Amino acid sequence: PVRSGLEELGQGIANLEEGLRAAAGRIQNRQDAVEYAKAVAAYNEDSSNELRRIQTEGDLADVDTGRQYVAGRGEIMGRVIAGFKGSEDARARLQGRLEGIRSHYVDQAAGLAVETGKKRIAGMLEAQRNAFAGQARQSPQSLPRLFKEIETGLGDLAGGLEPHEEQVNRRVLQSETLMGAFEGILDRGAVAGAERILLDTPGADSLLT
Question: What's the pLDDT tens digit per position in 60-102?
């Protein structure tokens, strides 16, 4: 009877320990879940807010700005992981999750940078079209010089335009500049001088075919 009582006591203690371990595991799992969710939400919000701030206050098309954003995402991720209060297993899962979020926002920033750059170039080209057409209208005889300036302007944008985009914009710039020159000629009634201007402007005649 004494031995049986000791065995029952020992089994009871073992059961209690097992129950405590299970309870501790559940508590740890809940803590991991809470800390994991908080860390993910905080990193996601910080990344989103910083990207919006750069869009309104900075210049995403600037290479240094993009590098700073990428570096900042890495630094913040390191801090979040270092301050994580969950288990090591949860920390490892968190690192993978944050890396996914970081990649998402870095890709988004890169896409916005490209779009910003394209819009900026489009604005510059529009300004050039208006300027060249206006100068040609005021001074039709300056057409040869303006065509050379078109090439110079496109050269300044080298790297910002794809080859086919450069070709399209060259034709648009030349066509609108030529049209401006024709309008200037008609306004002055100097039609006789139109042929001379065309002959003096390489490539102008091809725009009429």
Answer: 788 888 889 999 999 999 999 999 988 889 999 999 999 999 9
Gyration radius from the chain CA atoms = 35
User: By the 8 A CB rule, do 150 and 132 touch?
Assistant: yes
Count CA atoms closer than 13 A to 149's CA, side-chain side: 14
Alpha carbon separation from 145 to 27, 178, 183, 204 (Å, rounded):
79, 12, 17, 12
The DSSP code for 134 is: H
- For residues 49 and 43, give the distance between their C-alpha atoms in angstroms, rounded to a whole number: 10
DSSP per residue over 141-167, as a string? GGHHHHHHHHHHHHHHTTTTS-HHHHH
Residues in the chain: 209
